[in-house]
Design a protein that fits this description.
Elements: E1 6-12, H1 15-27, E2 34-37, E3 41-47, E4 49-53, H2 54-61, H3 67-73, E5 74-78, E6 80-83, E7 87-91
Helix pairs in contact: 1-2
Length: about 100
């Protein structure tokens, strides 16, 4: 995996970070997801594009979830970001895979 094209969220440690890691794996089944736990924060990354869906976050957390809750827990991210009320997409370049 080239580090130049790695994208994804860096989330403060806690239940949202755990759910993000699970959602990344479920919402991007054809991609190799890497989760690096740095104690205070968790870096979730994959090549080129990473999508996290609200519905998947709700399933992982077992409760309703608004995407703005991810934004509050987002310490940083790699790549470009696109947000809607139903998903957040981290991507490299302008292409959609």
């Amino acid at each position: 995996m080239s580090t130049e094209s790695l994208v994804g969220p860096v989330v403060r440690a806690g239940e949202v970070a755990e759910a993000v890691a699970e959602a990344a794996r479920l919402d991007n089944p054809s991609r190799e997801i890497t989760v690096v736990d740095h104690t205070a924060y968790v870096r979730v990354q994959c090549a080129d594009e990473c999508v996290i869906r609200r519905e998947t976050m709700e399933e992982a957390l077992g409760r309703p979830f608004l995407m703005r809750e991810l934004e509050v827990n987002l310490a940083s991210f790699a790549g470009q970001i696109e947000t809607t009320s139903d998903h957040v997409r981290f991507f490299y370049g302008g292409s959609r895979s």
